[in-house]
Amino acid sequence: QVQLVESGGGLAQAGGPLRLSCEANGRTFGSYTMGWVRQAPGKERETVARISWFGGNTYYADSVKGRFTISRDNAKNTVYLQMSSLKPEDTGVYYCAARLVSDWNYWGQGTQVTVSS
């Protein structure tokens, strides 16, 4: 069982930065692929970034590539999402998620990100 707690959301200006953090409990954090999944208003959930358990492999959705950076610190049981050049369409609820194989097994409660133009 993994519990995930996000922080760092809020209101940001278009073009500005924002950093999200997700702290996990559990001694097996380092075993999980971690990701950030966005739920934009009126849209389906989208995995915007993903990082392998050892941090060597990352994935980004085309919509955020070049602007968002995912990283993790296994010693702190924490995964980060550094967002820059924010756009109004980045607005949504951002969920931290963890998985072992394919589907996301664990979810955080979500943190709201609102980007104003």
N-to-C series of helices and strands? EEEEEEEEEEE
Distance between the termini: 40 Å
What's the total number of strands?
A: 11
Percent of residues in helices comes to under 10%
Task: Name the shape in a single word.
Answer: globular
Which regions are unreliable across 5 or more consecutive residues at pLDDT < 50? none
Helix and strand composition category:
mainly beta
Total DSSP helices: 0
- The percent range for strand residues is over 45%
Task: Give a quick precis of the structure.
The chain is mainly beta. It is built from no helices and eleven strands.
Description:
This protein has 117 residues and is mainly β. The protein contains no helices and 11 strands. It has strands spanning 4-7, 10-13, 18-24, 33-39, 46-51, 58-60, 68-73, 78-83, 92-99, 106-107, 111-116. The strands form 2 sheets. Strands 2, 4, 5, 6, 9, 10 and 11 form a 7-stranded mixed beta sheet that branches. Strands 1-3-8-7 form a 4-stranded antiparallel beta sheet, with no helix packed on it. Strand 9 (92-99) and strand 10 form a beta hairpin.
